[in-house]
Amino acid sequence: MLYYLSLLTQMEELAFFRLFRYLTFRSGAAVVTALLIAFLINPMLIRWLKVKQGKGQPIRADGPARHIVEKAGTPTMGGILILIPWIGATLLWANLSNPYVWIALLVVGSFGLLGFLDDYYKVTKRTSDGLSSKSRILIEFAVAALATWLIMRVQAPDLSGILTVPFLKTVLLPFGLFFLVVGGFVIAGAANAVNFTDGLDGLAIVPVMIAAATFTLIVYLVGNEVFAAYLQIPYVAHTGELAVFLAALVGAGLGFLWYNAPPAAIFMGDTGSLPLGGALGVVAVAAKHEIVLALVGGLFVVETVSVIVQVVSFKLTGKRVFRMAPIHHHYEQLGWTEPTIVIRFWIVAVVLALLGLATLKLR
Question: Is residue 142 part of a domain?
Answer without folding.
Answer: yes
